[in-house]
Amino acid sequence: MRHAVRLAIVRRVLTLTLRAAAFAAALACSLPVKAAPQVQLVGVMGSRALLLVDGQRQMLAVGASAAGVRLLALQGDRAELEVGGQRLSLRVGATPAALAPSGPAPGSAQEIVLAAGPGGHFVTQGAINGRTVSFLVDTGATTVAIGQAQAQHLGLDLQNARRAMGNTANGTVPVLLVTLTRVRVGEVEVANVPAVVMPQPMPYVLLGNSFLTRFQMRRENDVMRLELRR
């Protein structure tokens, strides 16, 4: 069954996407870049998984670890891994998973501090379900918004997602309603965040109010502080 929804975000998506593309090069120069390790499941051989970790082959049995990667379970062509406290589910032949930089355990911090970049936009690195993404903060968006191609890269279950219609500047488009198991920004992670998957490609994941309302927000000139609500 299709659900008609009113999403304040969808009318803003195209405008924000164009703006983001215009200053993406400038942001790349101004934002700190941290190399994130990548893991790919190449094959499954009995009770062992053949992995590529930063391009290096690793053969692991269930429970074994190598190069900071631990194999938790194998089921068919899928493997459950733990890397730096993050849990990942990989499928044979899928795109390598880029992992968020390691740091304090999620939940150990209570505040996110963001500095405005070119054009006054707040852009930051984070993770969805343990995979690295670039967020663009949008306080006028009802929910987190993800382009379909990136949603597929993140391994979201789009086949079973609820379908809806959203009004955009280019007319009505079909969208998918999903729930993100984990969304992490900096050292703060929250669970079960509603999101919408848009059909058009987007250079950033829009960080809307389904995430932001979990925090007490304060703006001080070019600094945004998000304090986790208790």
Number of helices: 3
Average predicted local confidence, pLDDT: 78
Q: Strand tally, please?
A: 19
Major sheet size, sense and barrel closure: 8 strands, mixed
The amount of beta strand, in percent, is over 45%
Q: Alpha-carbon distance between the termini? A: 36 Å
Outline type: globular
Structural class: mainly beta
CA-atom Rg in angstroms: 18 Å
Ranges where pLDDT stays below 50 over 5 or more residues in a row are 1-10, 17-36, 101-107
The helix/strand series, from N terminus to C terminus, equals EHEEEEEEEEEEEEHEEEEHEE
Helical fraction: 10-25%
Please characterize this protein's 3D structure.
The protein is mainly beta and 230 residues long. Helix content is 14%, strand content 50%. It is built from three helices and 19 strands. Strands 1, 11, 12, 13, 14, 15, 16 and 17 form an eight-stranded mixed beta sheet that branches. Strand 3 and strand 4 form a beta hairpin. The radius of gyration is 18 Å and the shape is globular. 30% of the residues are buried. The model is unreliable at 1-10, 17-36 and 101-107 (pLDDT under 50).
Overview in brief:
With 230 residues, this protein is mainly β. 14% of the residues lie in helices and 50% in strands.
